[in-house]
Amino acid sequence: EVQLVESGGGLVKPGGSLRLSCAASGFTFSSYSMNWVRQAPGKGLEWVSSISSSSSYIYYADSVKGRFTISRDNAKNSLYLQMNSLRAEDTAVYYCARETEYYDILTGYSHFDYWGQGTLVTVSS
Amino acid sequence: DIQMTQSPSSLSASVGDRVTITCRASQSISSYLNWYQQKPGKAPKLLIYAASSLQSGVPSRFSGSGSGTDFTLTISSLQPEDFATYYCQQSYSTLWAFGQGTKVEIK
Predict the structure, then answer these.
(1) Looking at residue A67, what is its pLDDT?
(2) Pairwise CA distance, residues B32 & B49, whole Å
(3) I need a surface site. Which of A41, A111, B31, B35 has the fewest CB within 10 A?
């Protein structure tokens, strides 16, 4: 059974840092790209960052670029999000999600097929 | 960046109703469109990928259609467990984007 379990959330002051972790099990972690998606209280989903299976390709949303760093350790089946210079608007539930590709002849279509339960990050003084 | 716009933002419907949610992309994304369902306090759940492919285990009353810039999610006969918020997501660009969500409420 595929499982993704986030941890590391909590209360942090503006300007502070936090490191989120996502422990994966039930699949070959090193074969999949992974993503972080967040949801502010009462708001919609916002994609944050993605990392390819071998960490060769990394992307960030403009809202976090230069402040957040995504990484992974395939030996530990773990995904990370280092969050620095945190702002009140970063307050959200952070989900990790597995990215899977479906191939229709020669075209690959990606989607997020498994999600963790989320971890809450609150940025407040 | 590609923007995704859903309509309506919310709707009220009764059990058994046919429900249609629309998602529009700011540029053509071919069939690179996914749909998710989210219930309060829970993680999103994948329903449809590649615009019209039903995720394993998802009831057949859910269907997706469209290509280019305009897409629809249809629930053929709304069930009590379908009251939730639905999001579209484009996978054309490496900078993933979600629509703002459509909340389906009980009439």
Answers:
(1) 98
(2) 8
(3) A41
Q: Residue A107 has what pLDDT?
A: 84
Question: Who's near B81: CB < 8 A, 6+ residues apart?
Answer: none
What does the alpha-carbon distance between residue A80 and residue A73 come to, in Å, rounded to a whole number?
A: 8
Q: How close does chain A come to B100, measured CA to CA in Å? A: 6
Give B-chain residues touching A65 at CB under 8 angstroms. Answer: none
From B87, B98, B1, select the one nearest A62 (Cα to Cα).
B1
**pLDDT at residue B12 tops 90:** yes
A52-103 tens-digit pLDDT = 999 999 999 999 999 999 999 999 999 999 999 999 999 999 999 999 998 8
| A:B CB pairs within 8 Å | 61
- Check pLDDT > 90 for residue A115: yes
With beta carbons less than 8 A apart as the criterion, state whether B81 and B92 touch.
Answer: no
- Best of A50, A57, A109 to substitute, by most chain B Cβ atoms within 10 angstroms, is A109
- A39 falls in which pLDDT band (50, 70, 90)? very high
Give B-chain residues touching A1 at CB under 8 angstroms. Answer: none
Smallest CA–CA separation between A114 and chain B, in Å?
A: 8
Provide, as residue numbers in chain B, all residues whose Cβ is less than 8 Å from the Cβ of A117: 43
Residue B86's beta-bridge partner residues?
A: B37, B102
